[in-house]
Design a protein that fits this description.
By secondary structure, the protein is mainly α. Helices cover 86% and strands 0% of the residues.
Length: 496
């Protein structure tokens, strides 16, 4: 099977999984916003921000280490088992230590974020999920090293978020609002871990005793630790707007901002889907010194990513009021923030594969400097913009950071590897997107007169259908046609 088919097939499943997961999380945020209040939604956002930042210490960069070392040792199964066992054993001790520290300092953290006792209790409940979340993530990355992405996607993007949504509904209407906020997060993490656990042994041959007996792997740790710092800085950059809004305002303001941030974040599912399968492939190609093939994949995947994200970007930027209106009328105050955050996510998604290319070709230190610089710049911009512009200032800071970071990473990849993401065929999705944007802009006055859900759905259909129609009129590239014909055989038969 050629690399195009592998990337498209795995990324197609991955994208479907991420889309399902993002939809479930979107539904959860919608539920909390509808049945609770902005303060509860802000409490949830701040607690998740703290937990996900803390999990980076427990993972310790071993997710990147597993991807590289499992992929590069494909001819040595014993070495692969040793690498996996060492990573899982190390992360277990780290995750328990991180969870304990969060429990001990939950009060101080809640006070720093201007949260009430409710935030402290939420942090304590969520801390118990850390060992299970970390294990699920590393099990998934170990399996992904064998180019099997499905178990990881199902566990992290289907099982966990769907359970979070369903359990929240269950607890809300059987045990009350606080129970719905406290318990579903941890329970969904536990169930997702036990779902993915058997797949590791089936695919890699690693048994529980192999993990218990595993020794430390100094070479993998030396490779992984710089990526821990990179991941920490990236995660802090991802959540910094929410955290600093908590530090500079209050949980209710965070609650008003959170729907805009998470809605714009839906776009990032496309990058995560493609980067997840492209990463081990790029690492293997770099080991074989196949720079030209890395460049081809880089351009191809960037084109596919851009082609997929254009319709939602148009919808979020031209109809922010109906999009946020589904959360409730009070959340439309974040419309300007949604426009800015969507632009930031668009830059991150279209050019974010540059970060994957750098990471998988051995430039860990450079990735660290990029992430460190981005974090410092975002802190400065948030301090300047949030007190003056509130949630719009936080969104503007994110846009400026991702604009500068994208330009920097593209330049670095070109200088170091002599490759770039730009291809002639990019004009087709850009032209189609411009056509769809003009139609949506003309229809906007009418769409705003419709009820919120009707305006949102009509705008989404108009954006998507007009975009697809022009893309088909301009004709897909040969690579895309091959993938579609392979995925849907009856089309190929009818064209013969």
């Amino acid at each position: 099977m050629n690399r195009n088919s592998v990337i498209a097939g795995q990324a197609g499943f991955s994208f479907a999984g991420f889309l399902f997961g993002q939809a479930s999380r979107f539904g959860f945020n919608l539920l909390v916003a509808r049945v609770l209040d902005p303060d509860a939604l802000g409490t949830y956002a701040l607690a998740v921000a703290v937990i996900q930042i803390s999990e980076v210490f427990a993972i310790a960069g071993l997710d990147s280490g597993l991807l590289r070392f499992v992929s590069s040792n494909s001819s040595d199964p014993l070495r692969q088992k040793a690498v996996i066992g060492s990573a899982l054993k190390t992360s277990l001790f780290l995750s328990l230590a991180v969870a304990l520290l969060l429990l001990l300092f939950s009060g101080n953290i809640a006070s720093m974020l201007h949260g009430s006792h409710l935030l402290q209790l939420t942090l304590c409940c969520y801390a118990a999920a850390i060992p299970f979340n970390v294990a699920t993530m590393l099990y998934g990355h170990a399996i992904q090293g064998f180019r099997k992405l499905q178990p990881k996607i199902i566990a992290t993007q289907m099982v966990s978020p769907l359970l979070l949504l369903l359990l929240t509904l269950l607890f809300r209407y059987t045990a009350g609002q606080k129970a719905a906020l406290f318990f579903p997060f941890g329970l969904s993490a536990v169930i997702a871990f036990f779902w993915i656990r058997p797949y590791l042994s089936k695919i890699s041959g690693v048994l529980p005793l192999d993990i218990v007996r595993a020794g430390s792997d100094s070479s993998m740790m030396r490779y992984a630790l710089p990526f821990m710092v990179v991941s920490l800085l990236s995660m802090m950059t991802h959540w910094l707007d929410v955290v600093m809004l908590g530090m500079l305002t209050d949980t209710a303001t965070v609650g008003l901002y959170h729907p805009a941030a998470r809605t714009a974040g839906l776009i990032r599912a496309v990058l995560l889907a493609f980067a997840g399968i492209a990463a081990p492939m790029i690492a293997a190609l770099h080991t074989g010194q196949e720079s030209a093939e890395i460049g081809r994949i880089y351009k191809m995947v960037t084109r596919w990513i851009l082609g997929l994200v254009v319709p939602p970007v148009i919808l979020f930027m031209l109809l922010p009021e109906p999009v946020l209106g589904v959360f409730g009328a009070r959340f439309t105050a974040g419309s300007n923030a949604l426009i800015l955050l969507t632009a930031a996510s668009f830059l991150q998604v279209c050019f974010g594969l540059s970060s994957t290319v750098l990471a998988m070709t051995g430039y860990a230190r450079l990735s660290l400097y990029n992430a460190l610089g981005a974090l410092g710049l975002q802190v400065l911009l948030n301090l300047l913009l949030i007190p003056r512009f509130g949630i719009t200032g936080a969104a503007l800071a994110s846009l400026l950071v991702f604009f500068m970071l994208s330009a920097l990473r593209i330049s670095e990849v070109f200088i170091l590897l002599k490759i770039h993401p730009f291809a002639y065929a990019l004009w087709k999705p850009l032209a189609s997107g411009l056509f769809a944007a003009v139609l949506l802009l003309l229809a906007r006055p009418w769409l705003l007169t419709l009820p919120v859900f009707a305006g949102f759905l009509t705008g989404a259909l108009l954006s998507l259908c007009s975009y697809i129609a022009l893309m088909l009129l301009l004709k897909l590239e040969q690579e895309e046609r091959e993938i579609i014909f392979k995925a849907i055989p009856f089309i190929n038969k009818e064209t013969k």
